[in-house]
Amino acid sequence: MGYSVLICYLPGMHEFEITQSILDITLNKAKEAQASRVTEINLVVGEWSSFAPECIEFYFDFLGKGTIAEEANLHFKSEPAQLHCRNCSAVFHPQNTQWVCPKCQSQILEIVGGRELYIATMEVE
Amino acid sequence: MRKIEVVQNILGANESIAVQNKQILDESGVFALNIMSSPGAGKTSLILQTIAGLKDRLRIGVIEGDVASTLDAEKVKNEAVAVVLITTRNMPESCSLTASMIATALKKLPLADMDLLLIENVGNLICPSEFVLGEHRRVVISSLPEGDDKPIKYPMIFADADAVVINKIDFLPYVEFDIAAFQEHVEGLNPRVKFFEVSCKTGAGMENWCAWVQKEVEASAYKSASLNISLGGRGIR
Ligand SMILES: Nc1nc2c(ncn2[C@@H]2O[C@H](COP(=O)(O)OP(=O)(O)OP(=O)(O)O)[C@@H](O)[C@H]2O)c(=O)[nH]1
Ligand SMILES: [Mg+2]
Ligand SMILES: [Zn+2]
Fold first, then answer.
1. Which end of chain B has less neighbouring CB within 10 Å, N or C?
2. Is the pLDDT of residue B234 over 70?
3. What is the CATH number of the domain that holds A75?
4. Scanning every residue of chain A, which has its alpha carbon at the shortest distance from the alpha carbon of B108?
5. Nearest to B82 by CA among B119, B57, B123, B49
6. Which of B71, B118, B200 to mutate to test the pocket of ligand 1 (most atoms within 8 A of CB)?
7. CATH of B2-230 among 3.40.50.2000, 3.40.50.300, 3.40.50.80, 3.30.160.20
8. Residues whose CB is less than 8 angstroms from the CB of residue B174 and which lie 6 or more positions away in sequence, other chains included
């Protein structure tokens, strides 16, 4: 029995796909606002997100060429990681990789923040 | 100059394709497992063992995310009902499957003749945790030679897992791996996770694993599982 082969022209690094989404959202919003130029894009990236701002910038230069967002500046705001203690309900920022609730020492924890990746605002002309 | 409020999740595009994938799978009555691990932990081996254990009862198709070679697809092609290989030509560094890759692959699979879809993700413990595919269950394999600290180093992928398979337990006499401590760490982040201790080499633990897979497939035939894609900590604050 054989198998079919699918070739995906994704140039590695998962930021490529993400950067395309950033551009799509940006251009959509700019169109809705009847803007002629996008100057600033303000992104929020969680501390535990695996997306690297440098890679997003690199791909944005490439993908944005010829669009009204081609000269936009990307700004990245880091959102701190947050854990919720399932034992005492404390919400805290872990100090190191040994995750322990500072209030009750429990290790039964839920990740509640730090994996965000979204466009907060943008500036257009 | 004007400021526009956007507040839009960037992974939303991937997630809406994942939702569509899940609908397509549900309509065809196919249950999908997204199998993730670091390189070499045993994804292909677990797929082969699962097919061997269940092929008399379930019709199984496979998507191989072997981005750099055809080796894994070669290994499973004679065992599964159908295999689709997703590869990135000349660009071996792709680090995760994405929902759009699965959408394309689903078109090539005989879904009407399948009950179970096993998806081998790219060997990586970071990137696949960002991209939901439309799977029904997320499976992470950790193998003994890798050490028991993976949940500490890569917590996200373990926090989102439905099942964690501890593979290569035949290595127990030779390596330091505290299974109880490992499980405690994962459970701390993910209290509802199921653990399986297996060896894809000796076949140990395979009955338990296959029984779970079969039970999950059968349960889903009665009640389609909810869209399990809002992973903790990713919402907009
Ligand atoms: N001793 C032992 N070896 C195993 C076991 N499971 C897998 N292996 C071996 O580990 C190696 C890697 O297994 P694969 O199944 O190819 O792992 P993989 O996760 O698919 O690897 P990549 O696709 O390259 O990321 C192979 O040589 C397997 O024979 C096991 O339970 N015990
Ligand atoms: Mg493999
Ligand atoms: Zn606490």
1. N
2. yes
3. 3.30.2320.50
4. A4
5. B119
6. B200
7. 3.40.50.300
8. none
